[in-house]
Design brief:
Layout: H1 3-19, H2 23-27, H3 32-35, H4 37-40, H5 47-75, H6 82-88, H7 91-119, H8 123-129, H9 139-150, E1 156-159, E2 165-168, E3 172-176, E4 181-185, E5 189-200, E6 208-218, E7 226-231, H10 235-241, E8 246-247
Parallel strand pairs: 5-8
Antiparallel strand pairs: 1-2, 2-3, 3-4, 5-6, 6-7
Helix pairs in contact: 5-7, 8-9
GO molecular function, one term: ubiquitin protein ligase activity
Pfam families: Tmpp129 (PF10272)
GO cellular component, one term: endoplasmic reticulum
């Protein structure tokens, strides 16, 4: 295998680990939130502002990954005729080079649109704006309520993978994703367990784990429903924090606690 191929595979794997960090990267603090912690501030102090900034940084980092590969080619001594490869190379290289330049420009344009009128058009602000009422006149008022509840110790946070986590506070159900925070208010939300998946932990043992897909559907107009996927062992904690009953269809069977697996 040539040095060029090894270099390309290494950068591809590194990019994948940045986009979808494995456990080792998370433990080492090599994730976007960890690397840009000084820019993002504290999630506990200002939850909504933290995630607005996090989504902006995430979009920026993702957009420069292809361009980073081109820059690495120029900087590496493995490639002596990179400019010739791009200018006179195949159609693939020309498209890749053009795309790598266009993505950061498009990302900056999108970030600029998000920042108009104090982030009024950011996906998180748009989601929160759907919950405005007599008590909350705009999305910032809703954000203040969420910030206050997130600071309390009675919330639960369930990380479903390295990119997504589910948060339940006294009144809110939140699903944090790379580019937005999906939101539902418990007062008008319905939760239904859609399915339970059972996975064997190891081929050498009979141990298994179950994951639940729960649909969260808001009764408010224009509020999109979303699905949260959690380990069955976290179901009891979520159920205790949610003010409304979680509907479990008769055809969905799972162990609500670890002890039930051995009964």
């Amino acid at each position: 295998m040539s040095d060029e191929v090894i270099f390309s595979l290494f950068y591809l794997i590194l990019s994948f680990c940045i986009v979808y960090p494995p456990v080792e990267f998370v433990s080492a603090g090599f994730t976007i939130p960890s690397l840009f912690s000084r820019v993002l501030g504290s999630e506990d102090e200002n939850f909504v502002s933290y995630h607005i900034k996090r989504t902006i940084v995430t979009l920026g980092v993702y957009s420069i990954l292809p361009l980073g590969y081109i820059i690495a080619l120029f900087a590496s001594e493995l490639f002596e005729n990179v400019s010739t490869l791009i200018v006179s190379g195949s159609l693939f290289w020309k498209i890749f080079f053009t795309t790598s330049l266009a993505l950061p420009v498009l990302a900056l344009y999108q970030i600029r649109n998000w920042m108009i009128d104090d982030f009024k058009y950011h996906p998180i602000a748009i989601n929160l704006g759907k919950f405005c009422n007599n008590n909350n006149r705009d999305w910032k008022s809703v954000a203040s309520d969420i910030n206050a509840e997130f600071r309390r110790i009675d919330k639960i946070c369930v990380r479903t993978n390295s990119l997504i986590k589910v948060i339940a506070t006294e009144n809110w159900i939140l699903k944090v994703t790379p580019f937005t925070v999906l939101t539902a208010h418990q007062s008008d939300a319905s939760l239904v367990v859609q399915k339970a998946d059972t996975h064997q932990i190891s081929l050498q043992t009979t141990s298994e784990t179950q994951y639940l897909s729960i649909e969260v559907k808001s009764g408010r107009q224009n509020v999109d429903s979303f699905v949260i996927r959690i380990n069955a062992s976290d179901f009891k904690d979520l159920e205790d924090r949610i003010a409304r009953d979680i509907t479990i269809p008769a055809n969905v069977k799972f162990h609500k606690t670890v002890m039930e697996q051995f009964v």
